[in-house]
Design brief:
Helices cover 30% and strands 25% of the residues. The protein has 16 helices and 26 strands. The strands form 5 sheets. A 9-stranded mixed beta sheet has the order 2-1-3-4-9-8-7-5-6, sandwiched between helices. Strands 15, 16, 17, 18, 19, 21, 23 and 26 form an 8-stranded mixed beta sheet that branches. The protein has a 5-stranded parallel beta sheet with strand order 12-11-10-13-14, with helices on both faces. The structure holds xanthosine-5'-monophosphate.
Length: 597
């Protein structure tokens, strides 16, 4: 990129979505670049800069040490769009008040547009937006007007039309904001930018860059069979000579049913013979008494590298001669706390300490590291990979291990919680799962719903969101689909990561996969984790279904399966005596993450 290329700068305040904003702007055809808060002033003076976006961030603007850009950026004459934390910072610097909201908002809300001007040119009067915040504006800065509101947020959108400074409390860059692209396109127009960016050019440029940078290197690639590592491998094989590239598939013991054979066969069809390392015993023994999700993730990530080294030795190859290749995509980096001000939500297996040390030493090749899943799929198509492979549901590197919750304690019972709704009883469960709220990690309890009346799933999802927004102890809500002993309160049982429990989960995962395929639901769902949870009514455990709809995994909504399918799938799963309860996750992301751990 030349300094004179017309572009928009996205200032990264450490939010989960800073990079996504830049990516969406590019997808809308305009050039965009991310800068750190500390570099924003200097970067804004480059001749090509036409506008600024302030991203969200995990801090509160009024906290000591919260990241801030110099106020003079707001008088530079450049159009500015502040999103979430960005809006709050602009408002504070221009003289408004920001406070902790009484009701935090995570997930969907309805925006009423008060004035269809500026970034709201051509916008619908009312549409769905995606919120993730605990702070909000208590007043407007002088000269600004409210352009939009939601039920809980009177200043959901504000603007100073003459100065072209706008602020949105919600996230226009995520899939859950229905007219987000329109608002961003309007901002691009306000910056006077032409549309020029295309994925094919990006691909050609990336292949050229890989060739220039790694022409002399050798890359030993870890492959999982998922779309990311397969596309990364295909991309590298376009750029590097065949003798410089090797692929390794590690059987961790946490793969889905028949996965290893299927991956080997599909690579064979692509003309690639994949080496397989059978390492289940190593993984199980390292994880035998581990219950903490982060500890699990770290051990798994390190073990991947240990297996890789052992395999290189077996092949009599020198570890030092081979760079590590991975199919890492952007959400892996950001969720692992990989940018300067971002919070760690969870450590992805390809971002454990040993890998970050290798990255710092320049020994890791990750050709997709700036892309999101939907973009990776586009690259896969441009590379000619089969559609079946491209559209497979994502599956995490640590596999079923992070879908099998463990507990060292036992006996604690679910506790009743006042539901405030006729025909609905609610219970706080004695387990915890990971969530993302206001750009920060949460680790909180799920709430279990039992219904006696008739409810629409969409109403229950609304209700679930309300529970999570109002109660900081709760970050997920589950609906009971089936129980072995009707009305018996679930109790925590002691359970570790054993081959037997993984086998129960693997069987259930296969039943769910086949059910979704047979009933035409697979393509409608983005991903459907199946989670085994040590909650018992008798001798078995709870099984949780987590079908979600998403575009890029940065946000997600619960998939609304109709009642007949819910009943049918629960009945199939209950035929296994190891299952006491079948539960359905009604939570969006935020406040829950897609995986439970
Ligand atoms: P979360 O749970 O963070 O997941 O909402 C977002 C997406 O990332 C996948 N995921 C992983 N993928 N290694 C991976 O390769 C990991 O450690 C990992 N953790 C989560 C998850 O399945 C979802 O698609």
């Amino acid at each position: 990129m030349q300094v004179t290329d017309p572009r928009i700068l996205v200032v990264d305040f450490g939010g989960q979505y800073a990079h996504l904003i830049a990516s969406r702007i590019r997808r809308l055809g305009a050039l965009s670049e991310i800068v750190a808060v500390e570099d924003a002033l200097e970067a804004s003076r480059l001749p090509g800069v036409r506008g600024l976006v302030y991203s969200g961030g995990p801090a509160s603007v009024y906290e000591e040490g919260a990241p801030r850009t110099p106020e003079e950026l707001l008088t530079s004459g450049l159009p500015v769009l502040g999103i979430c934390y960005g809006l709050q910072l602009i408002a504070l610097q221009l003289g408004a008040e920001v406070h902790r909201s009484e009701i935090r908002e995570y997930g969907a809300a309805m925006l009423s547009v008060l004035d269809c001007t500026g970034i709201f040119q051509g916008a619908a009067g009312s549409s769905r937006v995606w919120m993730s915040h605990g702070d909000s504006l208590a007043s407007l800065p002088p000269g600004f007007v409210a352009l939009g509101r939601t039920e809980d947020c009177p200043y959901a959108a504000i603007g100073h039309v003459q100065k072209k400074i706008y602020g949105l409390q919600f996230h226009p860059e995520v899939m859950g904001t229905d007219q987000g692209d329109l608002y961003l396109e309007n901002f691009i127009s306000l910056c006077g930018l032409a549309k020029s960016w295309k994925m094919d050019d990006y691909l050609e440029r990336t292949i050229r860059e890989l060739r220039d940078k790694y022409a002399e290197q050798r890359v030993f690639m870890l492959i999982s069979g998922g779309v990311d590592s397969t596309v990364a491998f295909a991309l590298l094989s376009r750029a590097l000579p065949a003798l410089h590239l090797r692929g390794l598939l590690i059987d961790t013991g946490f793969m889905r049913a028949s996965e290893i054979e299927n991956v080997v066969a599909s690579f064979h069809e692509l003309g690639i013979d994949l080496r397989v390392a059978h390492a289940a015993r190593d993984f199980f023994s390292r994880l035998a008494d581990v219950t903490d999700p982060e500890e699990k993730r770290t051990i798994i990530g390190r073990e991947f590298l240990a297996v890789r080294e052992r395999e290189l030795e077996k092949m009599e190859l020198n570890v030092q001669d081979w760079f590590l290749g991975q199919g890492t995509i952007y959400p892996d980096t950001i969720e692992s706390g990989g940018t300067r001000h971002s919070h760690k939500i969870k450590t992805h297996h390809n971002r454990v300490d040993v890998v970050t040390e290798m990255i710092a030493a320049g020994r890791v090749v990750e050709p997709l590291r700036d892309l999101y899943k939907d973009e990776v799929r586009q690259v896969g198509r441009l590379l000619g990979l089969p559609e079946e492979l491209i559209m497979r549901h994502p599956f995490p590197g640590p596999g079923l291990a992070i879908r099998c919750l463990c507990s060292a304690g036992e006996g604690e019972m679910a506790k009743e919680y006042p539901s405030g709704w006729e025909g609905l009883s609610t219970f706080v469960l004695p387990v915890k799962s990971v969530g993302v709220q206001g750009d920060a990690r949460s680790y909180a309890h799920p709430l279990l719903l039992r219904t006696t009346g008739e409810f629409q799933l969409s109403d229950l999802c609304q209700k679930a969101l309300r529970y999570c927004n109002e109660n900081p102890l709760v970050n997920r809500v589950l609906l009971t689909l089936a129980e072995r002993h009707s009305g018996v309160l679930p109790r925590l049982r002691r359970a570790f990561l054993t081959p037997e429990r993984i086998e129960v989960l693997r069987r259930a995962d296969r039943i769910v996969y086949e059910f979704l395929k047979e009933n035409g639901l697979y393509a409608q769902i983005w991903q459907c984790p199946v989670v085994l949870c040590p909650l018992s009514q008798g001798h078995g455990e709870a099984l949780i279904l987590r079908p979600v709809v998403s575009l890029d995994a940065m946000t997600a909504s619960p998939f609304l399966m109709d009642a007949s399918h819910r009943l049918a799938i629960a009945a199939k799963l209950m035929t296994d005596a190891n299952i006491d309860l079948v539960l359905y996750d009604l939570t969006g992301k935020p406040p829950g993450t897609i995986e439970w751990e």
